[in-house]
Design goal:
Layout (H helix, E strand, L loop, with lengths): L4 E6 L3 H7 L2 H4 L4 E7 L3 H11 L6 E2 L2 H5 L7 E4 L6 H11 L2 E4 L7 H14 L3 E3 L7 H11 L6 E9 L2 H9 L12 H4 L2 H11 L3 E9 L30 H7 L14 H4 L5 H10 L16 E8 L3 E8 L6 E8 L2 E6 L4 E6 L5 E4 L8 H4 L1 H15 L8 H19 L5 E2 L4
Parallel strand pairs: 1-2, 1-4, 2-3, 4-5, 5-6, 7-10
Antiparallel strand pairs: 7-11, 8-9, 8-15, 9-10, 11-12, 12-13, 13-14
Helix pairs in contact: 5-6, 6-16, 10-16, 11-13
Bound molecules: nicotinamide-adenine-dinucleotide.
């Protein structure tokens, strides 16, 4: 690559600045961030300090950035769910290629409008379905396409959200309300719908779904629960969702363990114990999980029928210890079981010895969605630099998974009615 691809970042939050922009630090020959916009001035200060973007190229909103002439080859759209499409449409008109955070939009008409504009402008529109770029799912897809289990018959996938991640993002945090952002099956699990579609290798025909917000409601508050965890809550010791455990003392998630990383970095920039306690005393992340303004489900199941009689089940649940995904695929000639966290695939061809494929032995980096964040950046930079087409997660493929997710949500809200996607 002769010149790095230049990027403007619209929405310099956790994804924009912590998942994608850092690719520049390890691959300066491929990526250069030259401009950005955010409504929070401290995020623009970070953009300048960490990535060397001049102050004159930092803008205080997506609108201000988009009022400028085109400033870069690519615009990363990493604002919140309902802000994506309007910015992306304007950016396409200005001639930017787009790297778009998922979900495209919770409104299917907006998804289609973006798809149409992408076709008409001929620019790259790649959606950040980062799981396809992980070694784990790439190896699994490759095995299936090479016929390792014969014809696929069933896929059984599970998203283990983890009790603390649910509390952080979907009870106290940014994605707690489907009206403000998106329903859980689209927000969190459009990745899983996308992966199921990709692995099945055929179109999804029908879906049916059940699920509810069962636990994180006021009726389930134990006696003596305070409105905020630090306000003398009588249930604190026994409560795994206690904010002080999650953000301070738990070695996996708290500031004493993970230090400056996610999830603590969502509460304060460069978090330390003092900043975290201040955020817990007054901010949304210090609230009791039974006394929040949340409405997204804490568990949901989906049944899916694909072409060629392939059937799949999907479960997302908050109530798991760890945050990861597992999958089992059966076919006419064998079965495969996989655990993304362990980076292990177990292939059992019928009548032959089991093969264990340990993807962590192949080296490489596994942080950031199992290596998917940087995998996506690497693939995207190559495409943008070469003017290539055929992105792995282009907008057309992504819209299919959005239709699956939105139909699943419509089914759930309608008592589990079977929905035929062609009529949705
Ligand atoms: N691909 C993935 O796996 C993945 C993972 C997590 C989140 N996401 C998605 O990424 C998006 C961003 O999530 P996040 O965790 O970075 O959230 P975030 O809140 O940390 O970042 C959003 C940023 O947009 C800024 N913003 C708000 N209004 C703006 C405006 N008008 N102009 C410019 N900036 C504005 C906010 O100040 C914030 O800094 C969401 O849509 C989310 O669903 C994707």
């Amino acid at each position: 690559m002769s010149q790095p691809v230049t990027f403007a970042i619209c929405g310099c939050g956790a994804r924009g600045l912590e998942a994608y922009a850092p690719y520049q630090l390890t691959h300066p020959e491929e990526m250069k961030v030259v401009a950005g916009a955010d409504v929070r001035p401290q995020r623009l200060e970070l953009l300048q300090a960490r990535f060397g973007v001049p102050r004159s190229m930092c803008f205080s909103s997506d609108e201000e950035l988009l009022a400028q002439p085109r400033l870069a080859d690519v615009m990363i759209v990493s604002t919140q769910d309902r802000q994506h499409v309007s910015a992306a449409l304007k950016a396409l008109d200005k001639g930017y290629h787009i790297l778009l955070e998922k979900p495209i939009s919770p409104d299917l008409d907006q998804c289609r409008a973006l798809q149409d504009k992408a076709r008409r402008t001929g620019r790259l529109v790649v959606v950040c379905h980062v799981l396809r770029y992980t070694r784990f799912y790439a190896a699994l897809e490759d095995l299936l396409r090479r016929g390792a289990v014969g014809k696929i018959e069933t896929i059984d996938a599970m998203e283990h959200v983890a009790y603390w991640h649910q509390a952080h993002s979907f009870v106290r945090g940014n994605w707690r309300s489907s009206q403000e952002t998106s329903p859980m099956i689209l927000q969190k699990s459009c990745h899983d719908m996308d992966i199921l579609r990709w692995l099945a290798g055929t179109r999804c025909l029908k879906v049916q779904s059940f699920g509810s917000l069962d636990y994180f409601t006021a009726e389930n508050a134990p006696e003596g629960a305070a409105l905020r965890c630090l306000d003398g809550c009588a249930c604190k010791d026994a409560c795994p969702y206690d904010a002080e455990k999650i953000y301070v003392t738990d070695p996996r998630t708290g500031v004493r363990g993970r230090g400056r990383g996610w999830p603590c970095a969502v509460l304060a920039s460069d978090p330390d114990e003092e900043k975290i306690y201040a955020a817990l005393r007054t901010g949304p992340y210090g609230r009791c999980v039974f006394h929040c303004d949340n409405n997204v489900v804490d568990h949901q199941t989906v049944n899916l029928e694909f072409e060629h009689n392939i059937h799949a089940t999907f479960t997302m649940t908050a109530f798991t210890q760890d945050c990861h995904r597992t999958i089992k695929i059966t076919g006419t000639m064998g079965e495969i079981e996989g655990d993304m966290e362990k980076n292990l695939l177990h292939l059992r061809p019928f009548g032959k010895p089991e093969q264990t494929i340990d993807l962590s032995e192949a080296g490489g980096q596994f942080s950031g969605h199992g290596g998917g964040d940087f995998g996506l950046m690497s693939s995207f930079c190559k495409l943008a630099a070469s003017g290539g087409t055929g992105a792995l997660t282009g907008v057309d493929a992504s819209v299919e998974s959005h239709v699956m997710a939105l139909a699943a949500e419509a089914s759930r809200l309608d008592g589990g009615r079977t929905i035929t996607l062609a009529q949705f």
